[in-house]
Amino acid sequence: MHPHTDLRTDMLIDGDWISGSCGGTIPTYDPGTGAVITEVPEAGEADVAAAVEAASRAFESPEWGGMLPADRAKALLRLADLLEADADAFARLETADQGQPLGVSSGFAVPNAVEHLRYYAGWATKITGVTTPLSVPDVDHRTRREPLGVCALITPWNFPLMICVWKLAPALATGNTVVVKPAEQTPLTTLRLAELVRRAGFPDGVVNVVTGGPGTGRALVEHPGVAKVSFTGSTEVGREIAARTGHDLKHVSLELGGKAPSIITSDADIDAAVQGNLTGGLLNSGQVCAAYTRFFVDSARHDEFAEKLAAGAASMKLGHGLTEGTDLGPLVSAEHRDRVERYVAVGRDEDGARLHERSPVDGEGYFVRPAVLSGVTDDMRVAREEIFGPVLSVLPYDDPDELVARADATDHGLGAAVWSRDIATANRLANRVRAGTVWINMPPLLDAAASWGGMKASGLGREMGWSAIEAFTEVKSVWTHLG
Length: 483
Ligand code: NAP
Hints:
Elements: E1 11-13, E2 16-18, E3 25-29, E4 36-41, H1 45-60, H2 62-65, H3 69-85, H4 87-98, H5 102-123, E5 139-147, E6 150-154, H6 160-173, E7 177-181, H7 188-200, E8 207-209, H8 214-222, E9 228-232, H9 235-248, E10 251-255, E11 260-264, H10 270-282, E12 292-298, H11 302-314, H12 334-348, E13 354-355, E14 371-374, H13 381-384, E15 391-397, H14 403-407, E16 412-413, E17 415-419, H15 423-432, E18 437-440, E19 455-456, E20 459-460, H16 465-471, E21 473-481
Parallel strand pairs: 6-7, 6-9, 7-8, 9-10, 11-12, 11-17, 12-15, 14-15, 17-18
Antiparallel strand pairs: 1-2, 3-4, 5-21, 10-20, 13-14, 16-19
This protein binds NADP nicotinamide-adenine-dinucleotide phosphate.
């Protein structure tokens, strides 16, 4: 067992810490060592039902249903303050459970979660409807934005706390209640956050957390008391959830996989592009849905770019996330490491592709050295399928007119990047490429105020900004006869 002494491992249901009705548990590992940190309950259907029923009661309760928007804002601000005060412990726990370097958890993931809570606290008092001039005599018409009810928030393992808060903050700001299901590999920061939710003064049942595997997630999606599913994860599971929520006519938001192209035009500053693409491709060891993974480079500069990218990747320090100076941590699990290495082998064995030199890995953790493949073509699997690891494919191009079609030649459409000194060219490409977000001359940043989501198989709906307020509310039309 890992030397964490103040771990929260029970589930939060209706304000109580529960160890689960069926007695099953799931271990969670430190991916930097392979050691078990602790075990968390595997929620059965009865636990899921208890959580949904608690959330339904809380939704109808005067304590929450009748809470003034300004008081919801204050509760969110208190939660933000508590999280900020405990930021160091959260960052260390995220690193231990997920593997990401401490610089990523403490410099990006935890502050981003704090910022989201404050941003949506601001919205709680600004969710307005409209009055509409109707062509009907003697009536007044107005709209109200109302919360949906119980929202199931299902999250992945790559940024567990941050993605949980992306959903939690707008869901609560708009007056919903929630049942959160974190990924089975990384439940610990979500459970620790649940502790802070109680201390921030949210009434019992407003926020519930159930832990478990896919069966727990499925039971939550299928529960008739759930009004909305907000899911971030793989396209495969997203399709299953879309089918089920479609059948049940529930609201749904899906943030799914990506395979972001990064277009480096012939006039681009190659050294700046190499630096930005190393960050864009290798943040959290490539376990980022918007990670830059396919680099389209003018064939005259393809070799130069690939060599510099490979040299930059090779110079990054691989190690345990808590070790000072670590640039790249392990992958989240042994299974995922093996999957990513299989992709590297598939890429290496393709005719025409070259795998740049990688030094061997040592240590017990689930480490993978970055793999740079050059001479990759659009039809190769490494260029089409989401790998979700540190595998960077460089593809030469000769005809700039083909770039958009080639960048779009995957099922995904989450993020894309363009690197060019000519800002008109960069914006023309950005406007045409099918991706929910395009970054020009920069790595993939996120901000609570900027809408986030995918086109094509990368998802349905948008999070962040006003989009998340819309996603967690529905519009009611109210008519008044004035005669
Ligand atoms: P995943 O396997 O789809 O799992 C995501 C969550 O869904 C986990 O909590 C998982 O539980 C749960 N789940 C699994 N099967 C389910 C089912 N049938 N019904 C309901 N819930 C179910 O994804 P992942 O491997 O954790 O995360 C990696 C994926 O997430 C990548 O594809 C990545 O691109 C995507 N992602 C997208 C975004 C975005 O914003 N678009 C952000 C981050 C990650 P278990 O853990 O117990 O399996």
